[in-house]
Structures are given as structure tokens and as C-alpha cells.
Amino acid sequence: MDSPDDKYRCKECGKEFTRKRNLRDHEATHTGEKRHVCNVCNKSFTQSRNLKHHLSTHTGVKAYICTVCNKGFTQKRNLNDHYATHSGERRHVCSVCGKNFTQRRNLKDHEVTHSGIKQYVCKECGKGFTQKRNLKKHVVSEHTEVKPDEHNENGDK
Asked: What count of other Cβ atoms lies within 10 Å of the Cβ of residue 17?
């Protein structure tokens, strides 16, 4: 067992931890190693706490409830982000262009557009996209005979 006086330092960035397992989890963020695996869907994570949060998606338990609209969330941080939709507060700011977002995940989606990395590639023509939803729109509009207005916003008929 680790004593409170022990310090474990990351060789990569110098961040200190009081527990060796926390250091190991942190180091995985540098290496990309994902040793925490969901026993339901086999999705893997670098940190055990992320796996713990993920598991709640399988149970469907939404323990965090919005006091304004009663919408439920599996994670407290998602509830906190959700509150911004009621207040209009945009506290998530892009460090590249300064654009503001109410929700962290929207900022993350946006930040990819600055990277130039197009990880979503059309299997039909090879065109790349920074966001999955843009690939889906492309496939519907360019490679199917169904017009986009015949689909709802999720791409379903």
C-alpha cells in the first residue's frame, strides 16, 4: 500500500501522484495503452475511472437528474454541461479560434477541425471528414438515391 508521503512522478510530463496505480493510469495517456476493457462491449480505456463511467451506459441508470427539465445523465460532468443549455453559458472555449460552446463534447468535436486530421473516410470515394456526422451526410447525399430531406437529423427514414 502506498503511504501518503510517497510521490510517484510521471517521467513524461513530471506530474506527481500519491498512488502508483494512478501514475500507471496517467502514463497510459502518453502511450495510448488502453488496459481497462469493458466486459460488455470490449471498448477499452486508458484510465479506470473512464471505464467506470462507461459501464453506466450499459446499465441505463441515469443517477444525475436536471432540476430544470428532469433529463437524466449517467455522469455528473454531463449534467453540469447540460445546465449550460438552460443558462446559455458557454464556458468551453476553443484555444485556437476562441469560439465558445455550451458543452465539452461540442468543443472536442470542433477542435478536430483545426487539426486537419480527417479520420472519417468514405469507403465509396475516399473523401475524408473531420466529423462522423459530415461523413454520414456525404454518404447520403453523394452515394445513395435518397435525398437528404427524406431523412431526419439522425439519418434515419
From this structure: 18
The residue ranges of every structural domain in the chain are 1-60, 120-150
DSSP 24: H
For residues 58 and 66, give the distance between their C-alpha atoms in angstroms, rounded to a whole number: 21
pTM of the predicted protein model: 0.43
Structure confidence by residue, pLDDT tens digits, 34-55:
888 999 999 998 888 888 888 8
For 1-60, CATH number out of 3.40.50.970, 3.40.50.1110, 3.90.25.10, 3.30.160.60 equals 3.30.160.60
Closest CA to 111 of 123, 126, 93: 93
